[in-house]
Every structure is written in structure tokens, then in C-alpha cells.
Design brief:
Helix content is about 40%, strand content about 20%. The chain is α/β, with parallel strands linked by helices.
Length: about 230
Amino acid sequence: MIKIAPSILSADFARLGEEIAAVEAAGADLIHVDVMDGHFVPNLTLGPPVVAALRKVARQPLDVHVMAAPIDDWVVAFAKAGAAIITVHAEASLHLHRTLHLVRESGCRVGVAVNPATSLTVLDEVLPMVDMVLIMSVNPGFGGQSFIEASLDKIRRARAMIDASGHAIDLQVDGGIKADNIAAAAEAGADVFVAGSAVFGEKDYAAIIGRLRAEGETGQARRGGR
């Protein structure tokens, strides 16, 4: 099943509550929250108090993607703030197994992200621990970047790893997803799609989310579903 996760990084920050309500009404499955610390990535966004405020207005799960290092203290803080899913970067933890266990202990679904230059081998020992793998299809730090085409092969290989594991693990892709490339990413094996400027850059959120979902389902059908 295709899931669309609008990233509020591209929303109007002066109207975040209204923006979230609008994309939820338009069919969003998750609300993607990009946390950047100005250290692990070259940008600074928001912290746990904002997530706690968003939790009060969001009806869909908050998909909190934490681009910060060191990471463990942030896991506890964002879990307490109301994150439903916490995705941490493999590159941000010296002890990834322990960090992922901490996410689970905090009561959240567990996600692990890998950057474009990071090998999927970092997942070999932790894949059974996770609910979601996130393939970064841009280098993290800023919205509005172009999709890295080589990511399609990485998505295929990640899908093969997940299928071979026998575990029910979502495969998310984040970065440059638009209506004209989501089908290719879905055909490669992704099933959860982060879309920032592709959604919030349009006036009709329902129309663009509907189109993204339809294009994604077309790609998934070409792959033969899950």
C-alpha cells in the first residue's frame, strides 16, 4: 500500500497547524517532521516543544526524522513530545543497535535512515529491529533538492534485503519525490514517500496527494505489489 507523508519542512511555518489540517484533509497518511540540528546537517529546524504542539493538532501519526548527532538524548525527548515514528540516521550513532533499542523502549516505531553515500551493509545486523528503512534520495539538510537517480538502484537493493528478511518493514524514500518520479521509486520497491515542496508548493493539496498516490500505485503495480 502506498503512503504519502508530506514534509512540513516545506509548509508555511507561520500556519503549521492549518497546513497539517489541510494535508490531512487532502489524504496524507503521515506527517513527516524533519528535525535538523545545524551540526549533523547544515540547517536548523525545530525541536521537541514544536513536535509537542503539533501532536495536539495532528490526527495522523507524526513521522519524526531526526537528523542530529549525538542522537540518543533526542530520541527520548521526541518520544515524550508525541512522535509515533522516530527515524535516526545510521551515520549519527556510534552504537546503532543500542539507539534503535532506545527508540523501541520509548514506545515509538523504529526507523533507520541511510544517506546517499552510505552502504546498505549498515543494516545487516539491525534490520530485524526496525519497522521502516529510509533511503535518502538527496543529501540531507535542505528541502527542494533534485532526486538522485542512483537512488533507484539502492531502493531495489533495500527492497531485496527487506523481502529476504521476512519481516514486515516499510521502505521510505525522502528527497526530490515528485509526481513524475514517484512511480519509478515505487516500482523499485519503496512504499512510503516523503514529499515536501511537491505537496506544499501546490495550491490544491488533495489533487497533488491524489496524483502522487495514483502514480505510486501504478509503479507498485508494475513491480507486482507487495
